User: Fold these one by one.
Assistant:
Number 1:
Amino acid sequence: GNSVTQMEGPVTLSEEAFLTINCTYTATGYPSLFWYVQYPGEGLQLLLKATKADDKGSNKGFEATYRKETTSFHLEKGSVQVSDSAVYFCALSATGYALNFGKGTSLLVTP
Amino acid sequence: GAVVSQHPSWVICKSGTSVKIECRSLDFQATTMFWYRQFPKQSLMLMATSNEGSKATYEQGVEKDKFLINHASLTLSTLTVTSAHPEDSSFYICSARYAGGEETQYFGPGTRLLVL
């Protein structure tokens, strides 16, 4: 079946550090891939997405590239800020619009 | 952007009682809403897909008679946990998709249920 595996947290970084959160997936067909972010006390928000191989999704300085050969969609940001502290979820959509989520990775950025 | 609300944000109830959770799309029409359940440190697990005006589609292993879903309008879906038991305690999250067919789902803030 379809599944998403992402690195476990929590991840703690200093402000302006480089961020990578790994995400790999298993799916039949050609899924769309997403990163969602959940700030404290809020609902999940779409951060970025990619719908086909080699597409790069980007938003707010975050990027992720759909790599079919490695079945990966790693999230990166060159310089994190304290305001980026949140839980990040990798997800895929392979059948209709239902989403399969990873377990989430908590990120804490310290000043 | 699109806003989805849930009510209540948290609820405590006695075992055997029923609890209703509302999910509303505030500034858009949603033909499809999804209900997820999240356990601590776990993924969001899809429970059911709710289409306006028709019966919900439940995922394997989810009891349709226990988790009643009603999607009576393009802006409201409700999840009723009937005869709740302590094992039903969890974080329930809904999402909604635009009526226009866009793939993106917009999520509510979640409802935390504690059954004593």
Note: The mean pLDDT of chain B is 90.
Number 2:
Amino acid sequence: AQSVSQHNHHVILSEAASLELGCNYSYGGTVNLFWYVQYPGQHLQLLLKYFSGDPLVKGIKGFEAEFIKSKFSFNLRKPSVQWSDTAEYFCAVNPGTYKYIFGTGTRLKVLA
Amino acid sequence: DAGITQSPRHKVTETGTPVTLRCHQTENHRYMYWYRQDPGHGLRLIHYSYGVKDTDKGEVSDGYSVSRSKTEDFLLTLESATSSQTSVYFCAISATTGVAKNIQYFGAGTRLSVL
């Protein structure tokens, strides 16, 4: 079955530290890839997406992600986190149909 | 933010009562979805719709039914609520054409407690 794995369930960082959140998926065909962010008490908001082209994509708030096809990975990065980045982050895969498969999420806490 | 409104935003109900949650969109997107979000499970798809009167089951559809009589409205009904259905419910929409193609946008969520 298709699945998305986010290996880090909880991450705690100090402000200005660098962030990398892992995302791996199991699907052999062409996929669309997404990272969503959910701030406490809010809905999911799109951070960035990859459909095709340059495998390094930039999103809002200084986030970027790199698609590595050979590793079935789409890791999220940010060079320097801020306290306001405290949130839950979800990776999602869309294999081009109606279906979107979400990872279980990574809770990030940034200490001021 | 995409024009998605969920109502109610909060609901407390008793076991065995029927509950209907509403999702309303102003984007005219073809696809609409209902997810539930539970700690440790991420988002799980309950039902989705690919057009008026066209719906199908997701991975956790037992105990839920949906209806879509208009493009803009997608209703989720819990026929007889159980405590295991206590959750946060999110509606999402996606388009099949245009700049928003294949991107899901989410509503603000409905927090449901079944006592």
Note: Chain A touches chain B at residues 32, 34, 36, 42-46, 49, 51, 90, 92, 94, 96, 98-100, 102-105 (CB under 8 Å).
